[in-house]
Write a structure and sequence with these properties.
Length: 593
């Protein structure tokens, strides 16, 4: 999930936390909100940018669409553990239209895009790019898959980042609930979401005619294999190699973002009643061992999305090898925790701790000797019983601003656990327990972007709302009827990217009711002015918003249009080819660094 944004900033010198920079103007021609059916079917992007006083013609360039044959490979084809195409229910090889984070990397004098597909099973492709014009234009020339067979395949990779050492840092979102997988006895009662993953191993858990069972499903599907930060490196031969970083914890990873010290990594957690996590590696540039921390919110204000002083709960040290060993030996949820029902008053039996993590109210007791397992396999639940805050709703993109030494985090929807015993503005006890009701802010369906201050060791000390969306109601006679958020403001911000030296934040949306057509915005941090620079077709979301100031002497703003007509407005689809996802970029720019 990701989007684009840029805008004109005023020339100024900003001083913050000892950091200084000159904010040169970066001005985009704005894009209007779509009103006609034709506009709502198009990828519409800014056509002009002014950089340091000079105008450049730019636009959106499609590099490849899902299902395209590029060289010897088919982009987005989903493969099983043996590397063979998985055949769908329609008898055709599965192609994913869910392209998500796509990093722009250089290796061995060549340029590549590493793209992950947000499905179950998932796919990752490395696509080689070549020059396609004199001003930095690019084209795709070859694509090949990356295997995660050694780690049981890849599950729902969402957003990501590029590490300071030049690798693709990916993610696995919406980790499957191991307690549910262990205790469900009838596969027809199991939620449909995890079932497709069994296709990776050749087991069809979805077709009743094949008589799937829970025993058969569990024989191939271990929930503790999924929910981790991943890393992909591209070799000089253009092939990708992927690993999972088990030491960094198992949550619904939106993405991890490495700080300039090459050791500290912030990890956002997407879902209901989730947390914010920080990992500190033992060694710079290596994420296979370190100490994990969970955020604790100490509220100071409920205005503009809320503000708080932050504390950090130590969840202990681990190495990926020792965590993977626990998974490989078949550890189960019941080996780690005792679980009891919570009372109507939100209290627990003696020795148990109340938790609403995962939006599941329950009472938990850690079994003896299970601290390591709990911290890395049930990270959010363990954080909750240790006193961390697990009340955030849909925590999405994160980016670092080196000019002000700050982090920015997108929270797509301010609701549920973030409210004070409410759900969407109405009384509810489903998302808070009395012993851990830390966040108490008003409901805002449009969400917002938050600013986090850092100390000199990259520890976040404060968090406050930077900009929030504005709920709106449009009359039936308005061209914007049905949009629940102000058409000229944010609607469910998702992935974000800071433009170094420009005082500009790129913000992409992932919205359904908020805006019918998702937009990418540029936010001038000095003036808080938003400029719309891209809109996408019906039912899509813009993913992989990420700024590359200088790749081969040119700047690029990566932009992916995920699943057109696939999240809403499905009835608007005219022909199957229109549903193919777009991998592309806005630009090229002159180098921006």
């Amino acid at each position: 999930m990701t989007r684009l944004v840029l805008l004109a900033t005023t020339a100024a010198v900003a001083l913050s936390a000892g950091h200084a920079f000159a904010a040169d103007p970066l001005s985009f021609d704005p894009v209007s909100a779509p009103t006609t059916d034709k506009e709502k079917r198009e990828v519409r992007a800014t056509s002009e940018v002014t950089v340091d006083g000079k105008k450049y013609t730019i636009g959106f360039t499609t590099l490849v669409r899902s299902g395209d044959k590029i060289g010897s490979g088919i982009f987005g084809q989903v493969l099983d553990q043996a590397g063979k195409p998985i055949v769908g229910a329609d008898g055709a090889p599965m192609i994913s239209n869910d392209i998500d984070f796509s990093s722009l990397l250089t290796q061995g004098g060549k340029t590549y895009v590493v793209s992950q597909f947000e499905t179950r099973p998932a796919a990752v492709y490395v696509t080689e790019l070549a020059a396609d014009g004199p001003n930095g234009e690019l084209k795709a020339v070859e694509t090949s898959p990356v295997s995660f067979a050694a780690d049981g395949g890849l599950w729902v990779p969402c957003a990501g980042s590029v590490t300071p050492w030049g690798s693709h840092l990916g993610s696995e979102e919406y980790e499957p609930d191991a307690e549910v997988i262990e205790t469900t006895t009838d596969i027809t009662k199991l939620d449909a979401y995890p079932k497709p993953m069994a296709l990776y191993f050749g087991y069809d858990a979805m077709d009743p005619a094949k008589n799937p069972t829970m025993d058969g499903f569990r024989a191939v599907f271990n929930p503790y294999r999924y929910g981790y930060i991943t890393e992909i490196s591209v070799g000089d031969d253009g092939k990708g190699t992927g690993v999972k970083h088990y030491a960094m914890g198992r949550i619904s990873h939106e993405l991890g973002y490495v700080m300039p010290d090459k050791k500290t990594v912030y990890m956002t957690d997407d879902g209901a009643n989730v947390g914010l996590f920080r990992f500190v590696a033992d060694e710079a540039g290596k994420l296979d061992a370190g100490t994990l921390y969970a955020m604790q919110w100490h509220q100071t204000s409920a205005e503009n999305g809320g503000a708080a002083k932050l504390g950090w709960i130590d969840l202990g040290h681990a190495g990926s090898a020792e965590v993977k060993a626990l998974i490989d030996k078949g550890l189960k949820f019941s080996d780690i925790f005792e679980r009891a029902e919570i009372s109507k008053e939100g209290t627990c039996p003696e020795g148990f701790t109340a938790s609403a993590a995962n939006a599941v109210e329950e009472c938990l007791k850690l079994k003896p000797g299970m601290e390591l397992a709990a911290s890395r396999l049930e990270t959010r639940r363990f954080a909750a019983i240790k006193g961390a805050t697990t009340e955030i709703r849909k925590e999405e993109g994160i980016t670092y601003d080196p000019d002000h030494h700050k982090l920015y985090v997108a929270i797509s929807e301010i609701s549920r656990g973030m409210e004070d015993s409410m759900k969407n503005g109405k009384p509810s006890t489903a998302f808070d327990v009395p012993s851990a009701n830390h966040i108490k802010v008003p409901y805002n369906l449009c969400g917002g972007v938050y600013e986090l201050s850092l100390d000199d060791k990259f520890v976040a000390t404060d968090m406050k709302g930077l900009i929030t969306g504005k709920p709106a109601k449009y009359g039936d006679d308005s061209p914007f009827a049905g949009n629940a958020c102000d058409i000229d403001g944010l609607a469910n911000p998702d992935n974000i990217s800071y433009v170094p030296g420009r005082n500009t934040l790129i913000i992409g949306e992932d919205t359904e009711a908020g805006h019918q057509n998702d937009a990418v915005w540029s936010l001038d941090l000095a003036t808080k002015k938003l400029t719309r620079i891209e809109t996408t077709p019906y039912g899509s979301e813009t993913t992989s918003v990420y700024v590359y100031p200088n790749v081969g002497g040119h700047g690029y703003l990566m932009s992916v249009v995920q699943h057109p007509y696939g999240e809403s407005d499905e009835k608007q689809l005219r022909q199957p080819a229109d549903a193919k996802a777009y991998l592309g970029y806005i630009g090229p720019f002159p180098k921006l660094d």
